[in-house]
Amino acid sequence: MRVFVLFACLCHSLLAVADVASADYQTPPGWRTECLGRVQFDVPQDIAWHVSSGYWQYYNFDLPDPTITPGDKQIAYGEGLTGELPFLVDIEVSPLTTRALYEQIRYVQSLTRGPAQERVVKAQMEALDAAISASRDDEARYRALSDQYYDLREKLQRIGYVTSQLVVLDDMIKQFTAEGRPVAKLQVERDAFFAEQAQWPTDVEYEHERFIELGVPDASANWYEGNLTAYLWRDQRIYRFKFYSGANTATDTAALARLEPRARAVLAAFRTRKQYEIPQDNGFCVPFGFIADDGTPRHAITLGLNPADNPKLLHRLSMSSDSDKAVEMVPMLLDRLIVNPFPMHISVDKFGPSSVRIGAAKGRFGGARFRVYEPDSLKPAATETFRMVAGAVSSGYQPTVVLGVTDEHSEPPLQFEPSRDQFLRTLQSIRALPGGHRFEPQVD
Prior knowledge:
Elements: H1 2-15, E1 32-36, E2 39-43, E3 47-49, E4 74-79, E5 87-93, H2 99-109, H3 113-134, H4 139-179, H5 184-198, H6 204-208, E6 210-211, E7 219-224, E8 227-234, E9 237-244, H7 253-269, E10 270-272, E11 283-286, E12 289-292, E13 299-307, E14 313-320, H8 330-334, E15 346-358, E16 361-372, E17 385-392, E18 400-407, H9 416-429, E19 431-432
Antiparallel strand pairs: 1-2, 2-19, 3-13, 4-5, 4-13, 5-9, 6-7, 7-8, 8-9, 10-12, 11-12, 13-14, 14-18, 15-16, 16-17, 17-18
């Protein structure tokens, strides 16, 4: 209850103050301008977006260290099709990669026969499990049903093995063909696995799963489990769009009929962009991409980034068209209530929350500085680490913005004051994308 009251007070205090971003604001010399969502902002040096987590963590990309947790990573966009769906689509951009990975992902999307066959066997096993439990008093029937259950379990394992072998053999045939090596033996082996796979039944769900032709090159999409997922191969990156229909099955063709036009409209409005390219029209920025729109579709974003030459200075940037992301400021308010758990080992100097300008709004800014005690002198060390967070609740066209920075022992060590000043300058620089919208000052 106290957290709720604090959050309510936070929203009230942020919406009750006003400040106007300077109309003649200029990017400081040597700084770069980047965009995300409906915001552009300045940074003192080149930055690296943390795009290798989330869906892409399964493809052996190097993960930044430190980084935000993959579960927190989010680019959500558009109004959901149903009241239960907050957004239309989740967007994930891959690190720089090869076309081979795009082809691999496209191929894997076609391998839905094996999972469908596994679902059939699992349903049979569930039915048998209930029958086995009901026949414990009949030893002969119990043993017979148990034997059937074990046979089904072996079949389930075999289906998985055959599916994986088909993937391996397909990759080997492609590789051998490219190298000019004979593939006849591999093809015979693959045909045998195909024949074995063909004997197992699929389910109704599988009959409704399908690929969707997008009508553009280097793009693929599939309808699976009630979601339409599209992959675009552009500029050495893969752009993944997962559209939600609200259904949990591919058999809901009415859900697909409602979703597909919306998905096609978003994909048609998307284009790539170079880092630091600021589009001059209305729309929505993602890392290395842009969706043209009228500025009204809702959104929510949380991404990690760091200076390109300092991976230990972790930034966490969150935005939303409503106040949802403002909850990330609550720990800053509670920080004063938390006692230093290691007072004999580390010095903690907390500051804030205090007022700070974020674009056209006033927000709150706070954090802490940390120094370990030297073991010999028991005095605070000369070097320190720190964390800072600042945020403002959405007002008018300006979205909720929360930016946090954590210094995880940068090398060489950073000085707090210059880092704080750069942080505050970045907050001050937040402004709308070029186009028809501007961030208006809040009214008292």
